[in-house]
């Protein structure tokens, strides 16, 4: 009974205040500055809340924030008015039923207009209506201010919110700051934080002790250098959200089963972190089976993948079919020869056919029969990646200075992949001074140390069959620079050989 009497008195008092507002003190929100409530203070003018200094001066503060205290009936009336307003501008408020809405329509209107100024549209609101439940002052402005502080351009804040509207519900101190510190701790450069989060904004919603830490720990355990984790995140941050047990580890286990050592996989992931995003069942396994169906030997698969890891994620069947037909039609290379080409130079699946034809036409123009040109390409597919200008210089030196028959080029087409100035000329001149006559392979396909040993010997060692991969060095696809020839030391470690054969694109 006492409770009912008190409630009745409170209701009567509220009605009297509403009926005669001048006779009562205005409601004071505990979070509202006292000097802005009621009468103007002596000697100073009280200004609206929106004109007060802010920690985020780059954003216009709203003139209305929370509204007034309402009873149950008033709240229901306000909710109906706000929902009607949202419907008139095209927003469907159904998902806002269980959400606490502002006390009046003016507050909601300012929320909508503030977000629209960022670049969001009515469709964006309908995609995620819960963003309208975020206070502009307490949620939106602090979050946007922090995002801009860590490197996201102000002009792209709207795009960021559109891609990840849940960020507006986040606490800057409790949720956002720890994630940024975690990324910095993984050696992500400060200037790259904004770039990383623009690519993968969902990172801001992850728990530090969950998927992110587990993914990093597993990659380090298979040999990825901790110092390379930061660059990997900058290149492909999505792996931080991948589960080890269901995504990363199955991919690693499958590639290891093909013959790729974990040491090589680690180097692949460091340089091309996006490989972790290839779907094992939908892309990787079908592409491996496709390679086998086109005649690639199983024992050659590790070398193929190590040289050109993107081959695991390409629309491979279509590319291989197109290139195989082209090789057969234009170059007179049969499917078996085409398979040998792919084993030695898997980048061929993506090489433009016009690029391929330029070196071929040069060789044909020198009077080399088409069948010999085909044989040269099967022996050394890297031939088609050498610029014609460099091929001309090497060919003319071969003919004018060395005076050798073209047949030797057919037998050793790798000649065109070596540097004329740093290897061919000086070694040939050394041979001339010694009066030694030998094959191209004998003085070119060896390291400087081995070449000097051969020159100092009193005999010419017998040439033995060496590895099939004997071109001048690591290959880069045709660009403004020629293929770079590098020294290769004799190695017996299979993993080291495999790594040396990895091609940097």
Give a topology summary.
Elements: H1 2-19, H2 72-88, H3 105-118, H4 122-127, H5 136-149, H6 157-163, H7 172-185, H8 193-199, H9 208-221, H10 226-235, H11 244-257, H12 262-271, H13 280-293, H14 301-307, H15 316-330, H16 335-344, H17 353-365, H18 370-379, H19 388-402, H20 407-411, H21 420-434, H22 440-444, H23 448-456, H24 494-500
3D architecture notes:
With 505 residues, the protein is mainly α. Helix content is 53%, strand content 0%. It is built from 24 helices and no strands. The model is unreliable at 1-58, 63-68 and 465-505 (pLDDT under 50).
Low-confidence stretches: 1-58, 63-68, 465-505
Gross morphology: elongated
Structural class by SSE content: mainly alpha
Helix content: 40-55%
Strand percent estimate: under 5%
DSSP helix count? 24
Oligomer: single chain
Mean pLDDT: 81
Q: Total strand count, please?
A: 0
Radius of gyration: 36 Å
H/E element sequence? HHHHHHHHHHHHHHHHHHHHHHHH
* Cα separation of the termini: 84 Å
Keywords:
disordered N terminus, mainly alpha, 53% helix, single chain, 505 residues
What's a concise summary of this model?
This protein is an all-alpha fold and 505 residues long.
């Amino acid at each position: 009974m006492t409770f009912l009497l008190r409630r009745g008195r409170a209701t009567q008092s509220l009605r009297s205040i509403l009926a005669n507002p001048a006779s009562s003190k205005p409601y004071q929100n505990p979070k509202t500055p006292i000097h802005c409530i009621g009468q103007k203070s002596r000697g100073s003018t009280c200004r609206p809340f929106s004109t007060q200094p802010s920690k985020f001066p780059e954003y216009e503060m709203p003139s209305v924030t929370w509204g007034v205290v309402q009873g149950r009936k008033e709240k229901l009336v306000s909710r109906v008015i706000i929902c009607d307003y949202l419907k008139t501008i095209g927003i469907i408020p159904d998902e806002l039923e269980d959400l606490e809405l502002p006390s009046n329509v003016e507050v909601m209107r300012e929320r909508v207009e503030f977000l629209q100024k960022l670049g969001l549209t009515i469709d964006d609101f309908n995609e995620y209506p819960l963003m309208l439940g975020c206070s502009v002052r307490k949620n939106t402005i602090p979050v946007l201010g922090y995002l801009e502080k860590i490197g996201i351009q102000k002009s792209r804040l709207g795009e960021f919110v559109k891609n990840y509207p849940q960020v507006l519900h986040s606490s800057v101190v409790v949720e956002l700051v720890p994630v940024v510190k975690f990324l910095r701790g993984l050696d992500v450069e400060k200037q790259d934080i904004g770039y990383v989060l623009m690519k993968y904004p969902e990172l801001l919603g992850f728990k530090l002790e969950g998927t992110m830490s587990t993914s990093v720990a597993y990659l380090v355990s298979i040999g990825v250098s901790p110092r390379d984790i930061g660059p990997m995140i900058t290149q492909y941050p999505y792996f931080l959200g991948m589960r080890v047990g269901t995504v990363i580890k199955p991919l690693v286990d499958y590639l290891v089963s093909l013959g790729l050592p974990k040491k090589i996989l680690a180097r692949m992931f460091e340089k091309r972190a996006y490989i972790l995003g290839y779907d094992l069942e939908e892309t990787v396994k079908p592409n491996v089976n496709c390679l086998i169906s086109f005649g690639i030997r199983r024992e050659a698969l590790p070398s193929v993948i190590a040289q050109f890891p993107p081959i695991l994620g390409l629309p491979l069947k279509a590319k291989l079919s197109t290139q195989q037909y082209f090789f057969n039609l234009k170059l007179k290379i049969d499917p078996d020869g085409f398979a040998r080409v792919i084993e030695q130079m898997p980048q061929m699946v993506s090489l433009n056919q016009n690029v391929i034809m330029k070196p071929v036409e040069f060789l044909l123009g020198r009077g080399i029969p088409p069948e010999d040109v085909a044989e040269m390409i099967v022996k050394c597919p890297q031939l088609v990646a050498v610029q014609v200008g460099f091929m001309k210089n090497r060919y003319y030196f071969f003919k004018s200075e060395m005076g050798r028959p073209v047949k030797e080029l057919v037998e050793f087409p790798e000649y065109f992949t070596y540097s004329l100035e740093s290897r061919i000329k000086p070694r040939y001149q050394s041979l001339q001074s010694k009066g030694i006559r030998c094959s191209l392979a004998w003085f070119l396909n060896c390291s400087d140390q081995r070449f000097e040993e051969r020159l100092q010997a009193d005999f010419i060692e017998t040439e033995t069959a060496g590895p099939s991969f004997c071109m001048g060095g690591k290959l880069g696809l045709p660009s403004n620079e020629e293929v770079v020839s590098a020294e290769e030391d004799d190695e017996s470690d299979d993993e080291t050989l495999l790594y040396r054969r990895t091609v940097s694109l």
